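Q: Please design a sequence for this.
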């Protein structure tokens, strides 16, 4: 599965990119027919520090599109929560 990571209003470092690719790569064993995954990470200045980082994950499979989104105060926690939502959709 080809994974692409994009950032909006934030820089996607190599460490963040590797983290996302590792987490999304684990989904491949449940979706062997998945062709492409796109992760978009967004930083938004809000009053609430709990919703500053948003992670969106979209996976294209044979005729289906799966999408999950989560916002938290930490970019890594947002990625984890998004991947957890995707696991539940796959089940």
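A: Design:
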């Amino acid at each position: 599965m080809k994974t692409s990571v994009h950032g909006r209003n934030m820089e996607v470092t190599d460490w963040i990119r590797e983290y996302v690719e590792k987490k999304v790569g684990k989904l491949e064993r449940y979706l062997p027919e998945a062709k492409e995954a796109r992760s978009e990470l967004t930083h938004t200045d809000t009053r609430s520090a709990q919703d500053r980082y948003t992670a969106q994950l979209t996976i294209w499979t044979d005729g289906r599109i799966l999408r999950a989104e989560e916002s938290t105060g930490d970019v890594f926690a947002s990625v984890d929560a998004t991947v957890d939502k995707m696991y539940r959709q796959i089940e």
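Q: Thanks. Anything notable?
A: The chain has a mean pLDDT of 90. The longest strand covers residues 36-43.
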